[in-house]
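Cast an eye over this sequence plus tokens and walk me through the fold:

***
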Amino acid sequence: MRVLLVEDFQGMMQNYKKIIRNYDENIEIITATSFSDLRSKLLSYDFDTAIVDNDLSIWNDYGEHDGIENGKKLCDLLQKTKNFKNIKSCLFLYTALDKIKIANDGNKIDYTVIEKSGERDLIRKFETEILEVMNDIIDIEPPVTLDDFKKYPTSKRIHHYKSVINKDKRPGRFVNKSNRYLWTTDIADDDNKEIACLKPWSEQNINTFAASCYSELDDRINRTNKLPAIFWNYTDPILLREQKECIRDVDFENNFINLFFRVSYSQSIAFHLLQNDQQSIDFHNLTKLIDKTDPLILRETQCEMIDIMSQELENESAIKKKLSAVHISTGYEIVDYFDGNIDYYDVESGIAYVDLVSRINSNRYLKKAFRYKRLTDEGIRFKEEPFSYCVSKFEGTILSHIEPL
């Protein structure tokens, strides 16, 4: 579940984040530090719900210092932004005597407005309301058929899998289970139970046993003609090496299973790297688990690190310091990582002009020309379809990756 949190006062923002994480520590919280940063985040993500302060007196990058005027501009910005229309519920906080009126515009957004009184009273009200708002979790997007999925370019396959694991309604599925679980999936067996792979009690034949489980999954996909959601267990860093070993030599008929694993593995490596100081032995050992011959894992690991750190409002210097440690260890460097949006398309030349905003530093803007066919090949066709654009350097070669959002 992904929440948009808009609050200009850092003290209150930390209070809100604490309440949300006490409710569910797995909720992804996206924050903004200015109007320009908010615009970038709105164009980059879909949100399940939003919690918005109407009085933004600290934000002045629109030239206004009046908090309520800024609040009105914020509401106008939200209503005009495509991604906000995907939000099913919204909690507005206000200090003005009159409640801000948000036009539903036919989008059926359920919104709640509560008044800011004293800080303690607000937190109490907020905690009551947030429990209701948080319960309005949207469903994962309509299922994609296996036949359609096989026609997707790799970037769109990656995006699909990320959308599944990021909106998993049970992100803590392994928290109360032992490390014997390697993975589970939503595809059921003959007894209508989710297929899961548990490590055997004897560690000697774990790879053979895991290969048998993967073979069962591969076969079940073919028989049901269903695209699965697969969730690997990384609750303990020790599992990273085991998971990698268990899948390494498996020959899948449905080779997207391996792609899904590489994406989930990269995200987990990134998470664990950020839990450790880059000078520590644990950090060094984690970088050894990154396959230095796999550009996808190299890229996805560092891009996930950027996403996590930018959501935590880390500055460019802090982000680059962490990335540099991974770059030194792996030889793979992220030059920059952008949110992209088509500004306009020249039909005669076949060139699309794209606005790019860096995720490493949201104040860095670029305009770049792309061959429109390159964008359409990755599933990007219209102005309303944002995408990410990663530029990297590996073994002396400049690489780029476009992915729908």
User: Anything to note?
Assistant: Residues 1 and 271 are 17 Å apart (CA to CA). The first strand starts at residue 2 and ends at 6. Residues 2-134 form a domain with the Rossmann fold fold (CATH 3.40.50.2300).
